[in-house]
Amino acid sequence: MMTHVLRRKARWLWHGLRIRGLNVNAGWNRERSGHHQGWKQGVMALGGVMAMLMMTGALAACRAPRQEALLVSVAANLRPVIEEITPQIEESLGAPVSYNVGASGKLAQQIEQGAPVDVFLSASPHEVDALIAQGLLDPASKQVFARGRLILWTRDPALPLSGLDDLARPDIRRIAIANPEHAPYGMAAREALQNAGLWQTLQPKLILGEDVTQSYQYADTGNVDVAIIPLSLVAVEREGRWVDVPANLYAPLEHTAAIVRNTANRSAARQFISLLISPAGQAVLVRRGYALPAEVASP
User: Fold this and answer.
1) What's the predicted TM-score (pTM) here?
2) Residue 152 DSSP SS3
3) According to the model, what pLDDT value does residue 50 have?
4) What pLDDT, on the 0 to 100 scale, is given for residue 15?
5) Beta bridge partners of 178
6) Residues 6+ apart with CB under 8 A from 138
7) CA 60 vs CA 53, 54, 66, 265: distances in Å
8) Which among 210, 220, 211, 214 is positioned nearest to 242, based on CA atoms?
9) Mean pLDDT across 108-137
10) What is the pLDDT of residue 239?
11) Other beta carbons less than 10 A from residue 16's beta carbon
């Protein structure tokens, strides 16, 4: 193959030399008329070209293959986790990792539409299962790696807040949740409020964020009094106060990873998930407020 490529390049350069007035055939014509010097110059020029091509080919053959960047679509609640573990993952992979962060439902829609993603980290298994059913994710790679916790959070440490019933008080005027139409934590917030008998009562107070990050920002900037968000967003280095939403009021938020079926980076994708569920990755998840599944298998 290399010889074939070099021959093609040689033919192209030969033609190029002719076009530029360096007609290497002229040496043969001059030699026939007794002018050996022109022939020798032509041969030397061609020899230099071939030597350059051989050196270029050798360098290309010896050059290590370049690692492509891994693209991961990741649920917004996992942003603090990936920010912490990415340097270790990139060092292990020997390649950069890029992230597309958003609500799990929106990320699933992008994969349906052909987004060039390698790995999907969802805040619930439902989006992953739906994509597997469409043949877009590899079912053998499906991995539950963490369970999320839903909390009430306020930036105001003086605001009395002990549970969901407090949300009905008149001094709490605005409450942010992620849009339940495409965000698993928004669905969980709606389910918890419904089971507590507060969903209809609180409708005038509810402000919907595009994802949990935006819902948190609404509360952090004082645009709402309370946000119902993942513990992961405030578990480390955050001011304010938080209270657990009882886990029996909403379905478990089983965070699930899977590899996109048609990825060209399958080896790196598998390694990414393995690092996420490794003891080091699990330690970060726990520190950020997640519970671990009873059993974590290799992808």
Assistant:
1) 0.76
2) strand
3) 42
4) 33
5) 209
6) 132, 258, 259, 260, 261
7) 11, 10, 12, 22
8) 220
9) 97
10) 83
11) 11
CA distance 35 to 30: 5
Which residue is it, tokens 């709606």?
Answer: 190
Dihedral Cα 52, 58, 59, 60, nearest 10 deg: 110
* CA proximity to 72, closest of 127, 13, 133, 115: 115
The listed range with the strongest mean pLDDT (11-25, 55-69, 78-92) is 78-92
> All domains of the chain, ordered by start, with CATH?
2-62 (no CATH), 70-147+252-287 (3.40.190.10), 148-249 (3.40.190.10)
Cα–Cα distances in Å, from 6 out to 44, 54, 57, 238?
18, 7, 8, 61
- Helices and strands: H and E segment counts in the chain: 10, 10
Q: pLDDT tens digits for 157-205?
A: 899 999 999 999 999 999 999 999 999 999 999 999 999 999 999 999 9
- For residue 177, the number of C-alpha atoms closer than 13 Å in the C-beta half-sphere is 27
Mean per-residue pLDDT for 256-281?
96
Q: 95: which residues sit within 8 A by CB, 6+ positions away?
A: 67, 68, 69, 70, 268
Q: Is 176 strand, coil or helix?
A: strand
Residue 98: is its pLDDT beyond 90? yes
Please give the Cα distance from 225 to 38 (Å, whole number). 89
**Residue given tokens 């996420």 in the structure block:** 276
Helix (H) or strand (E) holding 104, with range, is: helix 104-112
Closest CA to 155 of 60, 220, 103: 220
Q: Is 72 within 8 Å of 99 (Cβ atoms)?
A: yes
Q: Which amino acid is at 223?
A: N
Whole-Å CA distances, 36 to 42, 74, 131, 157 = 10, 71, 73, 95
